[in-house]
Amino acid sequence: MYSKDGTDYFILDAHIALWDARPENLRNVHGKQFIDCFYDYHRNLSPESEHWDYDQYLYYSDRLMKDLFEDGYVDHAIFQPAILGEFYKNGFGQTEEALALAQAHPDKLTYNHAFDPRFGERGLEQLHRDAERMDLKGVKLYTAEWQGESRGYKLTDPWTYRYLEACRELGIKNIHVHKGPTIRPLDRDAFDVADVDAAASDFTDLNFVVEHCGLPRLEDFCWIATQEPNVYAGLAVAMPFIHSRPRYFAQIMGELMYWIGDSRIFFSSDYAIWTPKWLVEKFVDFQIPEDMTEYAPLTTDSKKRILGLNAAALYDIPVPEHLQVAPEPVDVREPAVKADNARTADSELLTGMA
Amino acid sequence: MTALEQRTRLEQEAWDALGVVMDPELDEAITSLGFVRSLEELGGQDDDGRGALRVHLRLPTSFCSPNFAYLMCSDAKDALEAVVRHHGGGTVLVELDDHHDSDLINRGLAADAGYRGTFGHEAESDLDELRLTFRRKAHTAAAERALTALLRARPELGEDDVHAVRLGDLLPGEVTAALLRRRSALGLSTADDAPVAVDDHGAPVPPSVVGMWLRKARSTRISIDGNAHFCRGLLATRYPGAELDQAPRDEGTAPVPVQLLTRRPA
């Protein structure tokens, strides 16, 4: 919990990791390049006082609980692992260690696991076993992960659909999808989040959380999320702009609030790329600059929802009554684009534009 | 980077030629982004005794998308070969440093293998479609900037009125000039009486949806600007001092103006 000016906030960090990028775990040069890239993100977008040294950054299990729950105000955090088995001998995300932590602190930690549809039938069986052993409520999908000669897959691939059907049966209702800054693969899926659109339409009983809110394809994400009520925005990687580029952060928040509103945005530190302490502090103090009159100010209730209540609701994580907000009044603003309302014809005109 | 005053004439021409090679996703030249690590004229290196140009490019992360990396490298090579041809021929070496596909890309560039020849089975299509997609985005963002500037200057105009705005109504200056360049690149009209709010194919946006079109264009512009912030920052983190090679980003980084675009959907 975080308290400021007499207001208490329930904090749910919806995207954390426990990784091991030490030299002995590297499978090849890509593993080194990957962690170096993460370290550059860390150094580029963190306040200087929050910089870790490189060796600490490679592996940090000794400080995770303290960084999140003692110093970081976090009430609950969710592991969203990237496995990256092609780059790391024992995987990048440390499955067993993170799972053990989550099982030791079920009130504080939730472990989401990953699947890779390219493992076919064998992977499907593994998913069933994992769901039971790990009590999975969610999965994190890294659609750009390398696998043999493949440098990525789509949510709409037939095998992915079989896995999503399995998720539905197994009660894994939260599908987190990494759609971040453009990295690999090559031309396929290099810049669109369209596969989320199709999957969200076909699996309306699952929730799709787009990590990094589609940046740098924010407009594609907003367009999809406006039409699909089961699509959510994770703020991982967008969050630290609050320090280095606050006006840009304001524009991202302004756009997300405009297009999807405050009930589908999740606070995420992306720990250990960033620690939650300073992000929470700055977000509570943050306001849309007055001169950006095209955006409404961010209310305290909106901040409460974004910082914790939204993700808690999705994961059925109990929140003390005094940290809740009053029920949201019915939104009288007409949704920006809704397939089933009177603007259908207009929105069709816009499809494909811009 | 070779300091300006020390460049040979060929190097200066080469630098100018690289100034039109764009990062398609950021809609900005590789020279102003700091992506050109070095540029040098090598005397007598060619087998035929002719001069050679060697350029090293660098990117913000080793995982920058290989298709964009290849696009910029091959565009750079094309631009430099035109310069060298003008000087009677010679060799152009373009090398991409520190990328996870550096070896693959550099071999492909040296052999003029093309995108599909370089990446084989991984490249499902050629790069033309990708290039077109980003040209369209760049046009959309440029239209938003120009209209936003106009709305700022003329508070009586609202978001829903921009369907009536013609190119000739826009404020003179770099923002409008940039829009005209991007329209030319797409083959769209640049006549004074052409409407500004048009779709990717030049068709006017109907008045009933123009406000929404502008909002969508704004999110496109914010995406591009944000990605540029990201890439510029990461480049300087990865290569200390690289920020000195970066020109200020002259579009889109300006503060969002005070009084613009306050109308929302009813």
UniProtKB/TrEMBL annotation, chain A:
Record keyword Hydrolase present:
yes
Q: Fetch the InterPro entries from UniProt.
A: Amidohydro-rel, Metal_Hydrolase
* Keywords carried by this UniProt record: Hydrolase
Domain named Amidohydrolase-related: which ranges? 15-317
> What molecular functions are annotated in GO for this chain?
hydrolase activity
Quote the PANTHER family the UniProt record gives.
BLR3681 PROTEIN
Name the record gives this protein: Amidohydrolase
- Origin organism is Quadrisphaera setariae
